[in-house]
């Protein structure tokens, strides 16, 4: 460590080039509030980086009670912005805020009614401030351990903490197994059943839903009626699948990432809850004040035969319904970005391109813009959260209808797993294909966008296409 005093902050030390991100995650998995931004499906554009962080120096958690849950997080972020430091040649997240923004955070941003049942009571927001990050560049096959030295801001004290924390994490990563953080079991107890919202058995062993098949189809019909009445153009409606926990959350995530790899996969330990996500969808990215959002609308299940799989993709690309559904959300996201981006900068980079994942094919669009000088990433979140692809359009009315028709709180589902550096760099997923583990249960909601042409039977089948990869990890 003798060379470190002359090094600029944050301190950055290369990790062995052969060390996989998943190995670093497993070595740190038992530290408080470990978070893993996991590019499990590699792609030069979307799956280039992975990050592991743990043991935050500050922690903020807020319930879904309608209060301004973002205010405390924004205040913490602003406290350290003047002391931000980043190396331009390293991966973009080098320390800062990271955590969960649940779908139910929408009640902090708009006047949305509470759902009928909030049985599992996950937080609306849970965010840590992380001063040490293991960062992996899969394109360059390089990795670093980065230490900021925060929350110390006095130069000598900050450097001393940066050195100490760097050495501590190196011991955990490279020491003997006895010095590594040992994963702990968090299967919990399933004795909570009597407190749950009504459940309906499904044709998979041990899986129940908060809606029967008939009730889901009726919910779709109600959504279509609202569209014909002129209330909305589109609404996303979901059923919540539930299964009693049968392994640790860590083991569940390792199975999920193996069987359903995704570019926006991730794991987050909130304490009583763990997020296990195989999301394919980016919500928001900010780099040098350039904003990008990648809404997904339009889905087909994969086939085991190449010919049928190719046909499924061609069918999706040619579907007027699915393309119209995607274009509606693109227009919504353009409007959201225009609230905080310069008007001349907001544009469509990609429209309805076919992308293929382990169990489904999607239509994906890209909208870009540049933040106005007076706007911060928090202004962007307030203007656009939650993502339009998982609400509908117009967004507020769609969320009101979701609260009316879906019986239970969505919790993390359709929220975001996000990081926000003190330099303003941000990346946020949309938490679809996501299992929330806690209180003895695994919950995995699945849904889809409803438009005027939607057929209830087709929409119900689509939810099971989307659940396939998660169920492979559970059953």
Task: Describe the protein's architecture and organization.
- There is one protein chain.
- By secondary structure, the chain is an alpha+beta fold.
- It has one domain (11-175, 188-289, 373-474): Anthranilate synthase (4-Layer Sandwich).
- The chain has eleven helices and 23 strands.
- Strands 1, 2, 3, 7, 8, 9, 10, 11, 12, 13, 19, 22 and 23 form a 13-stranded antiparallel beta sheet that branches.
- Strand 14 (282-287) and strand 15 (290-293) form a beta hairpin.
- Mean pLDDT is 91; it is low at 1-5 and 188-193.
- This is Aminodeoxychorismate synthase component 1.
- One of its GO terms (biological process) is L-tryptophan biosynthetic process.
- Residues 22-144 form the Anthranilate synthase component I N-terminal domain.
- The tally of strands reads 23
Please report the number of helical segments. 11
- Could you list the spans in which at least 5 consecutive residues all have pLDDT below 50? 1-5, 188-193
The domain count comes to 1
CATH superfamily: Anthranilate synthase
Radius of gyration: 22 Å
First-residue to last-residue Cα separation: 48 Å
Structural class estimated from helices and strands: alpha+beta
Q: State the shape.
A: globular
What characterizes the major β-sheet? 13 strands, antiparallel
CATH topology: Anthranilate synthase
CATH architecture: 4-Layer Sandwich
Average pLDDT rating: 91
- Relative helix content: 25-40%
CATH class: Alpha Beta
Kindly estimate the percentage of residues that lie in beta strands according to DSSP: 25-35%
Organism: Lacipirellula limnantheis
Enzyme class: transferase
Keywords: Aminotransferase, Transferase
InterPro entries: ADC_synthase, Anth_synth_I-like, Anth_synth_I_N, Chorismate_C
